Amino acid sequence: MPPTPDHPIPAMLLAAGRGMRMRPLTDHTPKPLLDVQGQPLMVWLLEALQRGGFTRVVVNTAWLGEQIGERCADWASEQPGTELVFSHEGQDFGYALETAGGISRALPWLGDVFWVLAGDVYAPDFVFTQDCVDRFVASDCLAHLWLVPNPPQHPQGDFGLAPNGRVLNSADEQFTYSTIGLYRRELFEPPWCEVLPGNPQGTAEPLAPLLRRAIDAGRVSAELYTGAWTDVGTPERLNALNGPPAQPAPAPDEGAPGGPAEPVPRVL
């Protein structure tokens, strides 16, 4: 059955990482559950998917996965129509399966086309739309990526973008992969991926080699996203997002020229 607004595609939210660079915060809290602007990182993404009508989500877990399962179940219980499925890699194998391995493990719950997004990225304004899905389904691409301008910590970027919207493995101007994309099941099957569907052996497999092979074959497209986006990979970046709200400027003395001062902008 082709994806339609009445039968939207599922999404896979990646939440199995250890978050070593975020220690000691992640010693007792998985990174996707760290609070940003008053709620867990991954809840921002779950809410964005729900606003777009994508209410079936597979969440993979490993490190402190029971916390993610409990928190997401609590959230889903307050969201009518939301269906969450958990792929507990830590319970099943004792370790995380990396991105492609985790997606392969979840294929029995995913359709022919699905969203993939990382649970530790803050992108509060990203809009998941059926129109994007329809364009992707009508193409011959195995993946469609959203790229972002390179952040300071990753100035070299990941991929180039050709004028026709196809992704390049190397280009004079490179962009960073936002970790948000649309994918076909086909990319996680031979000849692109040798991991068995369902990954019963627990093979840990990264995503980048699959993507780069498909890019070389001209089968990956992308677009540039310029909205708010942060890879919350260090305590410093988390603190910057949770910076104190701006304090209102003091009222000017009576009769002072110039009127009230402009408020200090809030740190985002």
Topology:
Elements lengths: L10 E5 L19 E2 L2 E2 H11 L4 E6 L3 H13 L5 E6 H5 L4 H9 L6 E6 L2 E2 L7 H9 L4 E6 L11 E2 L5 E2 L7 E9 L23 H9 L3 E5 L5 E2 L3 H7 L27
Parallel strand pairs: 1-4, 1-6, 4-5, 8-12
Antiparallel strand pairs: 2-3, 6-11, 7-13, 8-11, 9-10
Briefly characterize the structure:
By secondary structure, this protein is of the alpha/beta class. It has helices spanning 41-51, 65-77, 89-93, 98-106, 130-138, 208-216, 235-241; strands at 11-15, 35-36, 39-40, 56-61, 83-88, 113-118, 121-122, 143-148, 160-161, 167-168, 176-184, 220-224, 230-231.
Features:
268 residues; 7-stranded mixed sheet; Spore Coat Polysaccharide Biosynthesis Protein SpsA, Chain A; alpha/beta; two-stranded antiparallel ribbon; disordered C terminus; 7 helices
Overview of the molecule:
This protein is α/β, with parallel strands linked by helices and about 270 residues long. It has one domain (about 10-240): Spore Coat Polysaccharide Biosynthesis Protein SpsA, Chain A. It is about 25% helix and about 20% strand. The protein is built from seven helices and 13 strands. The protein has helices spanning about 40-50, 65-75, 90-95, 100-105, 130-140, 210-215, 235-240, and strands at about 10-15, 35, 40, 55-60, 85-90, 115-120, 120, 145-150, 160, 165-170, 175-185, 220-225, 230. The strands form four sheets. A seven-stranded mixed β-sheet has the order 5-4-1-6-11-8-12, sandwiched between helices. A hairpin with a 2-residue loop joins strand 2 (about 35) and strand 3 (about 40). The model is unreliable at about 245-250 and about 250-268 (pLDDT under 50).
